[in-house]
Amino acid sequence: MEKPTIAITMGDPAGIGPELIVKVLADKTVYEKCRPFIIGDAAVLRDICRVVGAELTFSTIENLAEARFSPPEIDVLHPAGLQLEQVTWGKLAPEMGEAVAECLRTAFELALAGEIQGIVSAPLNKEAFHLAGYDYRDELAFFADITGSADTFMMGVVEPIWTVSATEHIAFKDIVALIKKDRILWYAGQMHQVLTRVGFNDPRIAVAALNPHAGEGGLFGREEIDEIEPAVREAQARGLKVEGPVPADMVFVRALAGDFDGVVCLYHDQANIARKLQPKETGATLHMGLPVICTTTAHGTAFDKAGQGICDPGSLAAALNYAIRLSVRPKD
Question: What domains can you pick out in the chain, each with its CATH number?
Answer without folding.
Answer: 5-151+289-327 (3.40.718.10), 154-275 (3.40.718.10)
